[in-house]
Amino acid sequence: MTTTLPSAPGPIGVFDSGYGGLTILESIRRRLPGYDYLYLGDNARAPYGQRSFELIYEFTLHAVEELFRRGCHLVILACNTASAKALRSIQQRVLPVLDPERRVLGVIRPTVEVLDRLTGSGHVGVLATQGTVDSHSYRLEIEKLYGGGLSVTEIPAPLWVPLIENFEADGPGADYFVEKYIGRLLAADPKIDTIILGCTHYPLLLGKINRFLPEGVKAVPQGDLVAESLADYMTRHPEIDAKCTRGGCASFLTTENPGKFDAMASAFLGYEINSTKITLP
Ligand code: DGL
Predict the structure, then answer these.
(1) What is the pTM of this model?
(2) Which CATH number goes with the domain that contains 69?
(3) How many CA atoms lie within 13 A of 266 on its CB side?
């Protein structure tokens, strides 16, 4: 990036490959309503889930740079696939060169941090995109925090995101694939009592997911966990907090058709959205 980044305080950036990050934004706004937010959905290139490591990294970096250019000092990667494949490289290699004062945070660590309080059996399942599962980011993070104390089984649910992105989440076809992936996970480890919805899109299927869960098994969406962790982060980092504006507003950017984005986002969030179309490199 060659342009100078704006130094004035700005909104908190929230990035997702598409609509899924709205589930995170919603929780964050409920928990931290005073800040301004700038949401970016790379809908034109979603889903990311089955793309190569290199592409996910490249697309995520472009999105982060765009949000920085638009005044954000703090960006949340509200996408597990981007968090799994790009977060560490951006934090360790890009930020020190680009601007060591800016921050990029992900969604995997905040989810894993509270797992020991959620599971009774000590057996946890993760449903996520192929990319997130292949990265084993959940397994690695769980092993880092709990050693061998928790058993984890990761299974991809590759068709859930396309169902959501194509407005089929409420259709009968979704039932088949919801049951299929839950069945596959619980067959792999019948002792699982806690299923992390390790993709920010999946809470948009939560009603259906809950219908197919046996008694004693719960699905955990990440939104509230990420929101709580961000609230804690802001109190521990007053220097970042001071760079985030507080007007209580949210703006939306999409790389696809804004009319389509507005219809989906408004339906999900329950208030009217007027997004702006942008192009990423
Ligand atoms: N919502 C994203 C996640 O949390 C990825 C969905 C996709 O683009 O495949 O993983």
Answers:
(1) 0.95
(2) 3.40.50.1860
(3) 11
Catalytic site residue 199? yes
68-111 per-position pLDDT tens digit: 999 999 999 999 999 999 999 999 999 999 999 999 999 999 99
Cis peptide before 47 (omega within 30 of 0): yes
Q: In sequence order, which residues have a C-beta less than 8 Å from that of residue 57 and are 6 or more positions away?
A: 85, 86, 89
Q: What is the mean predicted confidence (pLDDT) over 201-220?
A: 95
> Is 205's C-beta closer than 6 angstroms to any atom of ligand 1?
no
| 49 Cβ closer than 6 Å to some ligand 1 atom | yes
The pairing of beta strand 194-197 with beta strand 151-156: unpaired
Residue 74 is assigned to a structural domain of this protein: yes
Q: Are 212 and 122 within one domain?
A: yes
- Residue 169 sits in which domain range? 109-221
φ/ψ (deg, to 5) at 147:
60, -130
Whether residues 17 and 120 fall in one domain: no
**Nearest atom within ligand 1 for CA of residue 50:** 9
Which ligand 1 atom is at minimum distance from the Cα of 18?
A: 8
